[in-house]
Inverse folding.
């Protein structure tokens, strides 16, 4: 049994990464800045992961936990064989000073660091660590949905034990349950964002406008289902060209995403999936990048433009975005053809 550190004891870290480590009979140390969460983990010797009716619950008890400012956090980094980072892509850079300080206390043993975040090149803020010959820095991508339960460490999870990781960057195979070597990882990560995350956003913003609160119910709405299928058809054509994958493989990929979101066993909310709209509307993110790919390849999806409009309206309503529709559309349609811009302007 080797020692693994998971930085980030939230839903993905606790409910997914550590689930795979537990099933691999591995020891885990959680580090987190949330003092109340760490106190709860230190108080309770186990937590339960439930999978609806698809699988028996899993009681997880292979962990200890410390705040990231605890001196024992440094000690555990110094002793670890692997570090997994699950703090949100926007917070990875904040860990660099901590990791650099911890590595000063470490001997010459090698150390695997896997950044398990959903984003484009989420490990890039830590790239300077690659100059240390001890460090194998890589990335993993999470497809599994994990949801918390009020005032509890317990997790409700999708029944999926499959974690692709960049085996080329890591330089070796990980002997862990559910960890899958991926030799074209950056392509997989981008395909995931432009397929899975795009479809997720479509369901969320269209569902929000139709008044849904339950995410799976929105995903099963007949009108929304037809729209996401039409969007997926165009995305699939673009993806097969850009990433040189077969239409069969990409179609199966998008259909798996739709089935995942329509799974009523996962009690997700529309509110959780629409939040943080400004980040989701960045040029390389789940809505605008697929639109860019479509424009580059002479494709068109009125439905995906409708989703962009719905996201903008959500941002205006919640005051996360500007209240001026014309300026808002002009800003978020930069690089788009004039015809598409006019479609958005008329969607107010």
């Amino acid at each position: 049994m080797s020692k693994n550190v998971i930085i980030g004891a939230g839903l993905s870290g606790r409910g997914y990464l550590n689930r795979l480590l537990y099933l691999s009979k591995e020891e885990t140390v959680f580090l987190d800045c949330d003092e109340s969460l760490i106190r709860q983990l230190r108080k309770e010797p186990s937590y339960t992961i439930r999978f609806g009716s698809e699988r028996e619950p899993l009681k997880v008890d292979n962990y200890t936990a410390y705040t990231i400012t605890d001196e024992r956090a440094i000690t555990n980094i110094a002793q670890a064989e692997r570090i997994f980072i699950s703090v949100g892509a926007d917070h990875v850079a904040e860990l660099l000073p901590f990791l650099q300080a911890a590595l000063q206390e470490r001997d010459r043993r090698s150390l695997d660091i896997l950044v398990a975040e959903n984003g484009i090149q989420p490990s890039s803020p830590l790239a300077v660590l690659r100059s240390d010959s001890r460090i194998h820095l890589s990335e993993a991508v999470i497809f599994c949905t994990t949801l918390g339960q009020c005032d509890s460490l317990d997790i409700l999870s999708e029944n999926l034990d499959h974690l692709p990781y960049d085996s080329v960057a890591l330089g070796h195979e990980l002997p862990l349950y559910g960890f899958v070597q991926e030799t074209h990882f950056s392509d997989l990560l981008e395909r995931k964002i432009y397929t899975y995350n795009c479809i997720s956003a479509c369901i969320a913003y269209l569902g929000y406008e139709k008044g849904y609160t339950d995410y799976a119910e929105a995903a099963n709405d007949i009108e929304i289902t037809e729209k996401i299928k039409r969007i997926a058809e165009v995305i699939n054509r673009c993806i097969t060209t850009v990433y040189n994958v077969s239409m069969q493989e990409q179609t199966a990929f998008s259909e798996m995403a739709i089935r995942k979101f329509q799974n009523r066993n996962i009690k997700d909310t529309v509110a959780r999936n629409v939040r943080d709209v400004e980040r989701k509307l960045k040029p390389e993110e789940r809505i605008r990048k697929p639109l860019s790919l479509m424009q580059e390849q002479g494709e068109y999806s009125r439905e995906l433009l409708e989703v962009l409009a719905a996201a903008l309206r959500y941002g205006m309503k919640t005051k996360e975005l500007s209240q001026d529709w014309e300026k808002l559309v002009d800003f978020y349609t930069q690089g788009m053809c004039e015809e598409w811009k006019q479609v958005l302007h008329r969607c107010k």
In short: DSSP finds 15 helices and twelve strands in the chain. The chain has two domains: 1-182, 184-345. The longest strand covers residues 27-32. Residues 185-209 form the longest helix (25 residues).
